Amino acid sequence: MTTALLSPGSGAVARLAVRSGLGIAEWGLRRAARRNDPDRLRSILEARAVAAAALAERDALIRRSVHRLS
Fold first, then answer.
1. Dihedral of the CA atoms 41, 46, 52, 58 (nearest 10)?
2. d(C-alpha 63, C-alpha 70), whole Å
3. Nearest-angstrom CA–CA distance, 16 and 1
4. Cα–Cα distance for residue pair 22/36, rounded to 1 Å
5. Read out DSSP for the chain?
6. How large is the C-alpha radius of gyration of the chain?
7. 34 close to 40: Cβ distance less than 8 angstroms
8. Sorting pLDDT into bands at 50, 70 and 90, what band is 11?
């Protein structure tokens, strides 16, 4: 392809578009790698389990205290 038909500024715009596209693709790949990291996923699941247990314990304490008030 010849660039003779393109305007003089189109090279800079194309370069910016390509650089931006490559940057976005690189960011996406890094993000996917982080999101699929087994250690990270395991720690998230453990934190959720701890939070669920804490909420269950809190709810049980609230139920007992409300029951005593009645």
1. -140
2. 11
3. 19
4. 21
5. --STTS-TTHHHHHHHHHHHHHHHHHHHHHHHHHHT-HHHHHHHHHHHHHHHHHHHHHHHHHHHHHHHH-
6. 28
7. yes
8. confident
Give the model confidence (pLDDT) of 17-52 as tens digits. 999 999 999 999 999 998 889 998 999 999 999 999
- The pLDDT, as a whole number, for residue 20 is 94
- Classify the C-alpha dihedral 41-44-45-46 as positive or negative: positive
Q: Is-contact 48 40, C-beta < 8 A?
A: no
